[in-house]
Amino acid sequence: MADKNKEYSNGEVTIVWQQEVCIHAANCVNGLPGVFNSKARPWINADGATTDEIVAQVKKCPSGALTYYMNGAQATAPKIESESIVEVVPNGPVLVYGNILIKHSDGQEEHKNKVTALCRCGASTNKPYCDGTHKKNGFEG
Ligand code: FES
């Protein structure tokens, strides 16, 4: 699988965006519009806020598509305790926090960590993962 991760840095902190994990919840766009602007290219401007503001916002990403690392330090992801947590998002996916093994119907296996968004509406084109389609099809549940 090609690495689709994109990185944006202000010299102090680097924001990492995993496009295929993003569920387009828009928490980042609504929470810190000076940095996250889906209408701009590139859509992330790491100079649009302080490092502390960026870190605080990235930690709120519900899918784990946004992570960060401090430049010169090892990549930082939200610390996951050994206990797995499953969260049903109203009108959206199921989020699984922690290290899990996905066994696909074709026999392939995939390890996931951090946060994995699983489709609950049945309309994702990237099953079993949520691709944000639930927002377009008006899924309620
Ligand atoms: S729940 Fe997000 S695409 Fe189905």
Can you describe this structure?
With 141 residues, the chain is an alpha+beta fold. The protein folds into two domains: 5-70, Alpha-Beta Plaits (2-Layer Sandwich), CATH 3.30.70.20; 85-136, no CATH class. The chain has helices at 27-31, 51-58, 133-136; strands at 5-9, 13-18, 66-70, 85-88, 94-97, 100-103, 109-112, 115-118. A three-stranded antiparallel sheet has the order 1-2-3, covered by helices on one side. The N and C termini lie far apart (32 Å). Bound molecules: FE2/S2 (inorganic) cluster.
Ligands present: FE2/S2 (inorganic) cluster
Order of helices and strands: EEHHEEEEEEH
> How would you sum up the global shape?
globular
CATH class of the largest domain: Alpha Beta
* Total discrete domains: 2
**Widest sheet, order of strands:** 1-2-3
- Compute the CA-based radius of gyration: 15 Å
Q: Care to give the gist of this entry?
A:
By secondary structure, this protein is of the alpha+beta class. The chain has three helices and eight strands. The chain folds into two domains: 5-70, Alpha-Beta Plaits, CATH 3.30.70.20; 85-136, no CATH class.
Task: Give short descriptive properties of this protein.
single chain, 141 residues, alpha+beta, Alpha-Beta Plaits, globular, binds FE2/S2 (inorganic) cluster
Spell out the blueprint of helices and strands:
Elements: E1 5-9, E2 13-18, H1 27-31, H2 51-58, E3 66-70, E4 85-88, E5 94-97, E6 100-103, E7 109-112, E8 115-118, H3 133-136
Antiparallel strand pairs: 1-2, 2-3, 4-5, 5-8, 6-7
The structure holds FE2/S2 (inorganic) cluster.
